[in-house]
Amino acid sequence: xxxxxxxxxxxxxxxxxxxxxxxxxxxxxxxxxxxxxxxxxxxxxxxxxxxxxxxxxxxxxxxxxxxxxxxxxxxxxxxxxxxxxxxxxxxxxxxxxxxxxxxxxxxxxxxxxxxxxxxxxxxxxxxxxxxxxxxxxxxxxxxxxxx
Length: 147
Known about the structure:
Blueprint: H1 8-11, E1 15-16, E2 31-34, E3 39-42, E4 59-64, E5 67-68, E6 72-73, E7 77-84, E8 90-96, E9 103-109, E10 118-122, E11 127-133, E12 139-144
Antiparallel strand pairs: 1-3, 2-3, 4-5, 4-12, 6-11, 7-10, 7-12, 8-9, 8-11
């Protein structure tokens, strides 16, 4: 009801993110910050908060020539784990556990992929790596499926 009383000019104003003048309260409504102008414009029906859409592909080579790479951080979503080895033991995709240190096995493969890979779901910010055991000539990749 209170917003209906404001003029279009009042709702379209931008304000700097600096200290408020004495006697004035800082705006507490959601706003969109523009780093170029250092202004924060209030959100409206015609200018809502931006929505992050992650529609990007990313591919990580988790192992090359039977040598595992360092852990990688993912944006999250659906991924295809593809692996091929000249000799199989086990290839395990692992993620960093809730303790922040231990790597927990998520998928373990003991044979070649039959359908182009294994579909896995991973959360945003997940840290993953692979563990190779008893394998030779392994190459492992993890590719994000764009939404």
